Amino acid sequence: MLTIRDLKVSVEGNQILKGVNLEIKAGEVHAIMGPNGSGKSTLANALAGREDYQVDSGEVLYRGKNLLEMSPEDRAREGVFLAFQYPVEIPGVSNANFLKTALNEIREYRGLEKLDAMEFLTLVKERMQLVEMDPKLLNRSVNEGFSGGEKKRNEIFQLAVLEPALAIMDETDSGLDIDALKIVANGVNKLRSKDRSFLVITHYQRLLNYIVPDVVHVLVNGRIVESGGKDLALHLEEHGYDWIKNEREAPVTM
Amino acid sequence: MNKDQQSNDQQIIESRIKSEYKWGFTTDIETETVPSGLNEDIIRMISAKKNEPEWMLEWRLKAYRHWLKMAEPHWPNVHYDAIDYQDAYYYAAPKQEKRPESLDEVDPKLIETFNKLGISLEEQKLLAGVAVDAVMDSVSVATTFKDELRKLGIIFCSFSEAIREHPELVKKYIGFVVPPNDNFFAALNAAVFTDGSFCYIPKGVRCPMELSTYFRINAAKTGQFERTLIVAEEGAYVSYLEGCTAPMRDENQLHAAVVELVAHKNAQIKYSTVQNWYPGDEQGKGGIYNFVTKRGVCLEENSKISWTQVETGSAITWKYPSVILQGDNSIGEFYSVALTNNLQQADTGTKMIHVGKNTRSTIVSKGISAGRSNNSYRGLVKVHKGALNARNFSQCDSLLIGDKCGAHTFPYLEIQEKSAKVEHEATTSKIGEDQIFYCNQRGISTEDAIGLVVNGYCKEVFKELPMEFAVEAQKLLAISLEGSVG
Question: What's the pTM?
Answer without folding.
Answer: 0.78
